[in-house]
Amino acid sequence: MKDYHNRPKPFWLRTGIGPGTVAMLMLLAFVLWQRWQPTRPVTPLPPPVGAQHGAPLPAREPQWLLERAEELELNEEQRGKIAALQREYERRTATLRRKLDEVSQAFQRFMEEAQRKGGLKTVGEIQEQGKELSRLSRLVAQERKDAWEQALAVLTEKQRQQITKSDE
Description:
The chain is an all-alpha fold. 68% of the residues lie in helices and 0% in strands. The chain contains seven helices and no strands. The chain has helices at 11-15, 19-35, 63-67, 69-72, 76-116, 123-154, 157-167. The radius of gyration is 34 Å and the shape is elongated.
């Protein structure tokens, strides 16, 4: 039979450090770590788009105003001017929209082909393929914004306020 009483004592018993002392040291280390951890500045989130008073209206096509002609009480002259702006907008963007559709379809094919071949391409390749799509999208958006601003200029202040209230 083995003599368990004559074997050497563990280190923690010989030094007087018990499990309670180890637990207290760990707790102390945690508290100190929490206390002296570097603080990061908290950046507040920006308010939601349109939440600010006087935020710009979303850019729409002039057709949107014609669809609400009765509600806005547009007179015949206003309807005529806005209809002309809509026709001009459609004429100016027709080629851009066709190109945008073509480039969009080409980009879609590129992404589908990349997935069939075993995964997506690198971010750089995707960005390179998407450059023209992004450029054309920005051009169409700028044309829409310009046409919208011209259409808003045809309205009275009261009519513009009606649109602002309907967007809130």
